[in-house]
Amino acid sequence: MSQTLLVEDLHKRFGSGRRLVWANDGITMSVNAGEVVGLLGHNGAGKTTLVNQIVGLYRPYSGRIAVDGVDVVADPAAARRLVSVQAQENVPITGISPRKAVELVGRIRGGRRSAMRQRAKGLIDALDMGEWADRPAEKVSGGVARLSAFAMAVARPGALVVLDEPTNDVDPVRRQLLWDEVRRVADDGAAVLLVTHNVREAERAVDSLVLLDHGKILTKGTTASVVSEFGGGFRLDVDVARGAVPAFPDGWGVHRHDAAHWSVSVPEGGGVEAAEWATHARAAGQIVRYELGPVSLEEVYVALTTEADETRAA
Predict the structure, then answer these.
(1) Model-level pTM?
(2) Which residue from 154, 161, 94, 157 is spatially nearest to 123, judged by alpha carbons?
């Protein structure tokens, strides 16, 4: 796969003196053609600042950004022509319908009228937007406006597609349709940078990910490699019978949320033991329900950011 986006040792700062903030602090990452890379982080982690530099709205303090070999700082106009963006805020399209907005963006980006008409129809069908496709944009819901913004961004995608929180306000059913379409855009050859704070969704949608916190990369790689690097293992959630105190095996990390709900960290390789223990505990009446699964990316992200916060405070 060819490298479409390259970010090397990128720094961006705001303010000065005691008010100096490094919004991006030494970021190095890449996105290849045909790949979906998730840029994950809480509000204020530096995600949107990075995106604004990629599209040429901010100039880096130092470092390099290239899109399809074009240096963003040296030739921002050429680089922007290679990028399609769905911004965090919806683009106002008052006075026209979602269908017309998608067609117009496709034509602005060089598509033929007939081809863009078919492309708009295909996206509207794929995202199940037909009921609202021809209504004035000011009369559709926030979720439909968000779907329209996504469709506009991918109407005629550039070499790099940047999606900043694409599922905000979108209902669960159409959210899954949107993820399917993101995958299709990448399979057709675009590099996709997915910017989000929704770790659970990103875990299922991306090929690899970059975890960002206070402008720094905490870790990056595939979901499996990041979780494995953290230690892997399993999480057992149990609902405890009234008055019971389960006897958990030694070596498990036990956390009591309240009298009825406990969560347990089970070491790598302990999945079978955990399932057997939970089955016997339920039969013995110690617990009334249990759920066993691998450690999630969200748990890893929370642990890493907590550790980073503690390190900064020390």
Answers:
(1) 0.83
(2) 154
